[in-house]
Every structure is written in structure tokens, then in C-alpha cells.
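By way of example, what follows is a protein record of this kind.
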Amino acid sequence: MASLAFFRTQQSNLQEFKERTDGDGIDDDDYSDDFTYAIYRGINVESEGVELEISGYISDEVKVQAGITHLDMKDPDGNDARTFIPRNTVKLLATWNPSTLSKLKFGMSARWQDDIYFVSSFGRISQESYVVLGSYASYDITDNISLELNIDNLTDEKYFSSVKYEQAWYAAPRNYNLSANWRF
């Protein structure tokens, strides 16, 4: 199965950082100079892009899902808008269910995005492009009970999950999840 989508969106009055201020603009001794706050303005943003997704079996045992997205976002002046949103992303998931071991399943995932950044009064916060890999294995103990092990961020990639609004924080490091499922 394959799908191809072209999209176009117009958004009005989206917030965009303008400046920081202490409120009165005067360098004085009162407490107002001890606090700063951000001022935002509303902008209109036009975005357009294309997304391609495919999924299906490439053999009796292997299923693949893949997608790629390209996005273009501009403000009314034609400049890039909302640069903390990636412009290009790729996702891939492959699952393998060996016919000789029908109760066992394996899977691998990969997601990539290009670089993102945010410009604030404190400077530019940026994140280079990165890939995050994941894997899983599941085993059906009975028709109703199964075990599953998921590993996310397999290579322990260190990256910012967001750079929006001067708040850059690291995404989760490599992590494991072992679960037992009972269907009744």
C-alpha cells in the first residue's frame, strides 16, 4: 500500500517571540528590573509540503512501513517560520515473524529528522539532524499470554527533543520496557 499527500495550510495569529523586557524600560532600583518577561506577536504562517508513506509485506515473514515528509513554512515576508519544527523527516519500521518460530516476532525502527533551531534574545538554540533507532521482540507463550521487550534509543543518541521557547531539554536516553500481556 502506498499513499501520497500534498498539503497546504494557512494559519493566522500564531505566536512568535519578539523581545524580552522588564516592563517599564527604565533602569531603576525598583523590583520591576529584577523580572523580565517575553513579548510575543501574532504572525500569519503558510505551510505546504508532501508526504509519502508505503507499507506492506516484502516477503511472507517481513513487513515494512516507511514514510517521508517534507515541509516548507514561511511567514508573510517569505522567511522561514517556526524553525523549531523539522522540515524533513523519515520513519522506517520493519517487523519479522519467522515462519519456523511463528510465536516469535522481531522489529526495528528508525526515525530521522533534519536540523532545527530557535532564535531568542539569548541567542540561537539548535539541534543538528539525528537518527533514533529502536527494536522490539515479542513471544506468544500461549494464545492469550505474551511477553514483549522494547528498546528505544538503542544507540543512546543524545539530542534535544525540542528547542522551542528557549527550553531545550534532552530526550530520553536508551530505555527498556519489558511487559507481559494477557488477552482474555
Notes: The chain is about 0% helix and 60% strand. The longest strand covers residues 37-57. The mean pLDDT is 90.
